[in-house]
Amino acid sequence: MRILLVGAGGVGSAFAAIAARRDFFEHVVIADYDEGRALKAAAVDERFSGAALDASSSAAVADLARQHSITHLMNAVDPRFVMPLFEGALAAGADYLDMAMSLSKPHPDKPYELTGVKLGDEQFAVTDAWEKAGRLALVGIGVEPGLSDVFARYAADYLFSAIDELGTRDGSNLTVEGYDFAPSFSIWTTIEECLNPPVIWEKERGWYTTEPFSEGEVFDFPEGIGPVECVNVEHEEVLLMPRWIDCSRVTFKYGLGDEFIDVLKTLHKLGLDKTEKLRVGGVEVSPRDVVAAALPDPATLGDKMRGKTCAGVHVTGTGKDGRPRSTYLYSVVDNEWSMREYGHQCVVWQTAVNPVVALELLANGTWSGAGVLGPEAFDAVPFLDLLTSYGSPWGIRDS
User: Fold this and answer.
1) Looking at the domain assignment, is residue 316 inside a domain?
2) 161-186 confidence digits (pLDDT tens)
3) Which among 47, 198, 251, 383 has the fewest CB atoms less than 10 Å away?
4) 369 assigned to some structural domain
5) Which one has a higher pLDDT value, 194 or 339?
6) Under DSSP, is residue 57 helix (H, G, I), strand (E, B) or coil?
7) Which domain holds residue 49?
8) Within its chain, how far is the Cα of 382 from the centroid?
9) Contact call for residues 194 and 302 (beta carbons, < 8 A)
10) How many folded domains does the chain comprise?
11) Are residues 65 and 207 in the same domain?
């Protein structure tokens, strides 16, 4: 296995640190628009090297992949680059993995009722080409989407005979010392998913949308995190889970908090969430890129962060014993642990570990396939067993 890891930011650097402890691959090329950042991330091990890459050019992606005889392309950049990386991998004859799918476009007339272009639609539209080429595109294999989808598959196969709702719930009690506002994950991606119309899936209705931050609920997160108010947010799980898992409803809710929601609403009111470039003093800039540049890099916040982050799926329905069941399958990562063990903050570490596990399963043949597939298409048990051996235990809480 020869991996092209595109993106040397927080998640990409954590991916390199985790993979460096494993022996399932021959070489990893870390590529970034900033070659210096790629070389820094590649310094973890002699099996890593760095390169400069324009991730917006599928031709450049394919050329770099061919140059290094790449077998698997790992996408660790924000979702605006999904399609050129996805297309470049196929052109180069490489398998592909990502942690966020192709971007959505709201319905032009009824954005808070009907879906327009959904997350991942551009990728699923060409699944036949991937199948014909005998290549695999494993999409949505971060933590959410990713581990959450693996949990859903496990629940469907081993815990439930019928599922009413698969509800991804994400929350934390993280604080960042010295900052009034400092997101622990890419603000570009956070703006994208939080301000777009959230998608919900119901068996009788299909996919539909609602208002941002709708249907608030207080969810009690485990291992000392406690109750956090969660709201509907656009996310890939809702577009992935119903394709492979029989259930009645799928939702995604994120524990943002009132302050975070207020900031996002203000950015939207001011037009600072827009990605279209504006001319400012003779220079063209994207307002969202300016916001991202003005905030601290999430990868640098680890030593100032305190607390834990939790990702998981709350499943309701009928258990294997025929009785009503309500179960939360989850993973909690303590920032103190991830910083001590890997030197990376917990949110990016929890995201990065899952594609490393998936690549190891692909390398040893435990997972295999062709086409555009989500994590739900594979057996969950080998993944969860290997994840535990990486030092990332998971839990089940019945209520």
Assistant:
1) yes
2) 999 999 999 999 998 888 878 777 77
3) 47
4) no
5) 339
6) coil
7) 2-138
8) 20
9) no
10) 2
11) no
